[in-house]
Specification:
Elements lengths: L4 H9 L7 H40 L5 E4 L8 H9 L4 E16 L2 E10 L1 H7 L6 E4 L10 E5 H7 L6 E12 L2 E15 L4 H6 E5 H8 L7 E6 L5 H11 L5 E4 H4 L1 H39 L1 H9 L4 H45 L20 H17 L2 H8 L3 H5 L3
Parallel strand pairs: 3-8, 5-7
Antiparallel strand pairs: 1-9, 1-10, 2-3, 2-6, 2-9, 4-7, 5-8, 6-7
Helix pairs in contact: 1-12, 2-10, 2-12, 2-13, 10-12, 10-13, 10-14, 12-13, 12-14
């Protein structure tokens, strides 16, 4: 044998003697438990990654990767700010916008909303709103025509469609001979969009930037400039660079700040799910402890003979650590294979399960994401595999130490 005898003996001890199949059964149960835990961890984290990707994409379909804004009164030098921003190699496009709060009124129905004035030609370069239009077109917004685009949920709540009239009121008063009255303007609905986020579909309206400037009395000014980046994950760094490069007083923000609470909540949920599901792997791994304790008891005579032949306590300890590590390794390997296969095919398996059970897990009437997205990330697989192998190795230490303490004379006394 060229391999170390500790490894050879550990591999032989992985299978118990024929007279004690119960130990083999517990070893098999430990492997299966570890495999199930690892599979569950990889699959759940992949599904959560998929949900995060889908929600991030839907949020950034309307929200800019980064924004440059001025003081409360608005920016009048936005052309210069946009030009300086475009000089950054990470900036793909820039578009001005005007934003304010308003209320949309149709008959007796009234709904609060966020008003955003855009330039259609530039807006299509910084957001995906044009691809989410379910009626009309972004290009239908013309200066001076006072047309408006509503979200699908808001249009349904107000029961309006293309060509209908809506009154848009803003929280600014106008003094007239009849007294102080809210400022409002009648708009014609020219489009409806749906991005799959209730925040936007229910609470956002789009108008031409010139119409918004006239309504909000911001001639020649804008609220800020919206930026689209080549790499959205570089937004924090680009925001810092622009803040240092822009002259004057500007506020530069990015999507990780404007939606920090949401993405922090998703990260917290992923961490909690990782800890909870890791307990499954932990329970299965600590079954190895009971397995090895029984193996040590079963192999007392063998241990004594090895000791009398010159085996050191360290060698005895290595033998049983090899045996427990083999159980953890095989269970982890099976779990990784099952988890990767399940994570890569979960989007195909869920419709099959729905057809078999006759129940839809994510109803489109309730959830905006009616399918189950999945995104497998190999760093997650490596982290889960490392955790499983580490737990399996740690669970072997105490039984192996017990085996190394066996005294040959005591073990052979009744043999």
């Amino acid at each position: 044998m060229r391999q170390p005898y500790e490894l050879f003996a550990g591999l032989r001890y992985t299978r118990a003697k024929r007279r004690n199949h119960f130990i083999s059964f517990i070893s098999l149960a430990s492997m299966i438990g570890i495999a199930i835990g690892v599979t569950a961890l990889i699959t759940v984290l992949s599904v959560m990654n998929g949900f995060e990707r889908e929600l991030r994409g839907r949020i950034l379909a309307m929200a800019a990767h980064a924004t440059i804004s001025g003081q409360a009164s608005g920016m009048d030098d936005w052309v210069q700010a946009a030009g300086l921003a475009r000089q950054n190699k990470e900036v793909a496009a820039a578009a001005p916008y005007i934003e304010g709060e308003g209320m949309v009124k149709v008959g007796g129905d009234l709904s609060g909303t966020m008003l955003r004035g855009v330039l259609p030609a530039d807006e299509s370069h910084v957001s995906d709103i044009a691809s989410h239009m379910i009626a009309g077109s972004l290009d239908d917004l013309k200066p001076g025509a006072y047309r408006i685009i509503l979200g699908r949920e808001l249009a349904q709540a107000l029961a309006v469609g293309i060509g209908d009239k809506v009154d848009l009121m803003i929280p600014q008063a106008s003094v007239t001979p009849a007294g102080v009255i809210p400022r409002f303007r009648r708009f014609t609905v020219c489009g409806v969009f749906q991005v799959g986020m209730y925040e936007f579909d229910r609470g956002l309206v789009l108008v031409h930037m010139n119409d918004a400037a006239a309504l909000l009395r911001m001639p020649g000014k804008v609220t800020g400039v919206r930026l689209k980046l080549h790499d959205l994950f570089a937004a924090p760094r680009v925001a810092r660079e622009l803040a240092q490069a822009l002259p004057g007083i500007y506020y530069v923000s990015d999507w990780t700040r404007s939606h920090a609470n949401f993405f922090r909540a998703v990260a917290t949920e992923k961490t909690v799910m990782f800890i909870i599901l890791s307990l499954i792997v932990g329970v299965a791994a600590f079954n190895i402890v009971s397995t090895l304790v029984m193996v040590v008891q079963d192999k007392q005579a063998d241990i004594a003979i090895l000791r009398t032949l010159g085996a050191t306590p360290r060698s005895i300890m290595a033998i049983f650590m090899v045996q427990g590590s083999i159980i953890g390794f095989v269970g982890t390997l099976l779990g990784v294979a099952g988890g990767v296969l399940l994570a890569l095919n979960v989007e195909k398996l869920v419709p099959i399960l729905e057809a078999l059970t006759g129940h839809q897990f994510l109803s489109p009437d309730v959830y905006y994401i009616s399918d189950l997205p999945s995104e497998l990330k190999w760093p997650d697989v490596i982290r889960i595999s490392g955790l499983s192998l580490a737990l399996g190795l740690l669970s072997t230490i105490y039984p192996a130490w017990r085996a190394s303490r066996v005294q040959p004379a005591e073990a052979l006394r009744y043999e």
